Amino acid sequence: MPINIPKHLPARERLEKENIFLMEDDRASTQDIRPLNILILNLMPEKKKTERQLLRLLSNSPLQVNVDFIHTETYQSKNISESHLNEFYKTFTDIKHHHYDGMIITGAPVERLRFEDVDYWEELQTIMQWTKEHVTSVLHICWGAQAALYGHYGIDKYELPDKLSGVYGHRLHVPTTKLVRGLDDEFLAPHSRYTGVSATSILEHEQLTLLASSEEAGALLVMSKDEKHVMITGHIEYEATTLAEEYERDQAKGLPVQLPENYFPKDDPSIPPLNRWRSQAYLLFSNWLNYYVYQETPYHWD
């Protein structure tokens, strides 16, 4: 089934070339089915890339999905045009009286700051509290996952000695959980971050379940026991070249970054990297949409 997105969204052309099933509003409105309404709070600086990455994964489902994007009101992104935000994005004020079947809160390049020092932290806390009554299930990615673990469960992040960047093997701990149904017992996922969260603190928390982790990268998949929140500390939505682009960007800035681990073939940056996590990413998003959004959301919100 298709994903319904605005006709002129820049991601459309690239996704259509990949044979992603897309639909426009006029066709979607004639279908006598209940689509899922998904809200995406996009905190990433390169918003167009993140839009494309997330829409690609949301598309691989038998469910029709409508998507709304929102951006922060208390912080203005410097890497996207105001015209793009005005055309394709709303704010929390615009949507706070609505209900959504699912929501995604992305990562953000603010992880070395204390949560309280982030410009939009109070706004994000307000949104996270709002989701308790207005959203069926929330998927949190990278810094968004750390923010959820801190804001909802009191688990703080800690700074790593060096940036964690690369593709790492992970092992499932609770393979019977619906979210990971069909995933391999061991699978790959990319990480790109300066901070981590304690797997021990997650395991000891009575409201959380650690679903998958890595010896090198730590916790990856965490779910609340009420199944309301899914936290992914890595970037399974990344495209094959995303880590390479980040590596080149950091090098250009003169930052002391290491070559992403287990990423470039033969550790040679001149050889194009392969996407070795795509199938797991598609399956994880499909499971989330099906089991925790579609199967749980009310047909009619009060």
From TrEMBL:
Its EC number is 2.3.1.31. GO terms for cellular component: cytoplasm. Its main location: cytoplasm. Gene3D superfamilies: 3.40.50.880. It is an enzyme of class 2 (transferase). It holds the Pfam family HTS. The keyword Zinc does not apply. Pathway: Amino-acid biosynthesis; L-methionine biosynthesis via de novo pathway; O-acetyl-L-homoserine from L-homoserine: step 1/1. Substrate binds at K163, S192, R249. It catalyses: L-homoserine + acetyl-CoA = O-acetyl-L-homoserine + CoA. Belongs to the MetA family. This is Homoserine O-acetyltransferase. The lineage of its organism: Bacteria, Bacillati, Bacillota, Bacilli, Bacillales.
